[in-house]
Design a protein that fits this description.
The protein has 139 residues and is an alpha+beta fold. The protein has a single domain, classed as GIY-YIG endonuclease (3-Layer(aba) Sandwich), CATH 3.40.1440. Helix content is 17%, strand content 32%. It is built from two helices and seven strands, in the order E-E-E-E-E-E-H-E-H. Strands 2-1-7-3-4 form a five-stranded mixed sheet. Strands 5-6 form a two-stranded antiparallel ribbon. The longest helix is centred in the C-terminal third of the chain and has 14 residues. The two termini are 32 Å apart. The mean pLDDT is 87.
């Protein structure tokens, strides 16, 4: 399925076939007109339900990640007003756990000073346990 504005990872469009063992990603969406950006995270799957032999079973189904533009109302309004092709959607890091997504989202938000410069980010929120599944190799 083709989308107007692909997610870019390492300089190339990212597809479902490239997900592998990752559960989500940290991203940066940039307004190419004015340079404003948003740092966020997105999971590749969401909770779903399936009927199996008359019973409802909880399953994981693919999320709307391909079409996703963020939880920022202001950014989504600009996407509607200016058009999708004005925005560059980059995957900064693929993650193998929810904790890893949360950690690296906050890390990028602090490194890029999202609350101190003119960005779409309005707040930083994270809660991560020390024994969470985080990669030990820092890249």
């Amino acid at each position: 399925m083709e989308y107007e504005n692909h997610w870019i990872y390492n300089g190339s469009p990212f597809t479902s076939e490239m997900i592998d063992a990752h559960i989500g990603f940290v991203y940066k969406i940039t307004n190419t007109n004015d340079g404003r950006f948003y740092i966020g995270k997105k999971l590749f799957t969401r909770a779903g339900r399936k009927k199996v032999k008359g019973k409802t079973k909880k399953i994981r189904v693919e999320s709307d990640w391909m079409k996703y533009y963020s939880s920022s109302d202001e950014l989504n309004e600009d996407v509607q007003k200016l058009g999708k092709n004005v925005f560059r959607r980059e995957i900064l890091r693929l993650c193998k756990s929810k904790s890893e997504c949360t950690y690296y989202e906050a890390k990028y938000q602090f490194e890029l000073s999202v609350l101190l410069v003119n960005t779409y980010n309005k707040w930083i929120q994270c809660k991560i346990r020390r024994n969470a599944q985080l990669r030990t190799k820092h890249e």
